[in-house]
Amino acid sequence: MLTTYRPDPVVDPEFPGFGDGIIELASLTGEDTETWDGYLAAHRRRRDYFRRMGATSTDHGHPSARTADLAPREAERLFHRALGERVSPQDAELFRAQMLTEMARMSLDDGLVMQIHPGSFRNHNPTVHRLFGRDRGADIPMRTDYVRDLKPLLDRFGNDAGLSLIVFTLDESAYSRELAPLAGHYPALRLGPAWWFHDSPNGLMRFREQTTETAGFYNTVGFNDDTRAFLSIPARHDVARRVDAAYLARLVGEHRLAEDEALEIAADLAYHLPKRAYRLD
What's the pTM value of the predicted model, to 2 decimals? Predict the structure, then answer.
C-alpha cells in the first residue's frame, strides 16, 4: 500500500473550503499561492514531498475528464477568477480542466504516474448530505466523454511515452467506444481496471470483454485497488484474479490463446503489469 498525491480540494474551486485550502497550501510549502506561478510551485513542492514519502502516483477525482491547454496569461487570469468568492460553474470546470494538463506536465518532470477517476455525481441525496455531510454515499455514475475531453491533454502530451496516464471510468458505455481505442493508440494512456460500482465479478468480466479486442491486455494496468476499506483488499484482488483467469481460460478453450500464453498473461495481470504501471520495478 502506497500513499498518493490527490490534490482535489485545492484544484477544485467548487470544493468546500477551497480558499482556506489555498492558504494552507501556502503555509505547507512557503510559496505565494495568490500568484499563478507560486500556486504551481506549491503543487510541485507537495508532489515532491509525497514522492519522498513513497508515492509513485497522483490521483484526480474530477466530475468530468475535461482537460484544457490554455496560454499562460489566460491560465493566470482564470486562476484569479477561481480565487473569487463566487466563481462561475463554467470557470470552475475550466480551471479543473487546466489543472489536469498542468499535472500531466508536472508528471513528465517528476515521474509520478497520473490517475484520473472522473464521472461521479457525488452527494446526490440532499437529505443524506444534510444529515451526515459530504462523501457519505449517494454517489451515482454519470456519462463521461473521453474522446473530446482528453484531447487537449493528449494533443500536448499523449505521444510522450514518458507520461503514464491511467484512466478509470464509471461509464461502462465508454469502454469499447472510447477508452479502448484511445489506450490502443496513445503511448501515454493506459486503462485502469473496472472501478467502484463495476469492481465486481460481472463488472470485471465486462471490462475484459469490452476492452481486450481493441486495447489488448498490455494497454491495461492489471488490477489495483484504491479502497479505504482495508479489510476488503485481499478479497477484491482474489476476485480480480479469478475473473481474469476465467476470461483467459475461455480464450484458451476457444483456441484464441495457447495455454502457455494464458499462464504468462495471468501472471502479468495479477503482478507484473501493476508493478510496471506504477513504476515499482
Answer: 0.95
